[in-house]
Each structure stands twice: as structure tokens, then as C-alpha cells.
Amino acid sequence: MTVEWDHDADGIPEGVTFASASGEFEYEPAGLKVGSNTLHWRTWQWDFEHEEYLIGNWTSMEFVLENPANGPAQIVELA
Fold first, then answer.
1. Can you give the pLDDT at residue 78?
2. Which of 1, 19, 32, 72 could in theory staple to 25 by disulfide, Cβ–Cβ 3.0 to 4.6 A?
3. Can you give the pLDDT at residue 66?
4. What is the DSSP string of 13-71?
């Protein structure tokens, strides 16, 4: 099963991952801002009997991305 990820709610996937036979998958989105985020996802797979794709509806999930405790140093101002 394929899982598509839409980062900006435009209906165009920015990422894709594949689920195992047990339905497990991992996805690490890139370019998200620290703070509140919403990702949209849907699944699809090939239906061999009807010879067509079965495409699910977009579903959303909200979460808060926090700064990593040991993140890289950042330059915030030059004098």
C-alpha cells in the first residue's frame, strides 16, 4: 500500500512512503517549521480484480514540532 503526504494542502503529494504487509510505515517530512503543523495523507493501492487504483480520501493530522534539544547552532544577528 502506498501512503502519500501533502504538506501544504494543495492536493499534490510532497512525499510518499510504502506500508508493509502489516500496515506499518515510516515517514520523515522535510522542511517543516518549528511550531504547529498540519500534514495531510491518503493511501492507495492497485485493485487486481477490477484493474484500477483504489484511492482513499485525504485525512489530516495536526502536531507541534519542537526544536531539537541538541540542534545545530544558529546565527541570529551579525554586528
1. 72
2. 19
3. 87
4. -SEEEE--TTS------SSPPSEEEEEEEEEEEEETTTTEEEEPPPEEEEEEEPPPTTP
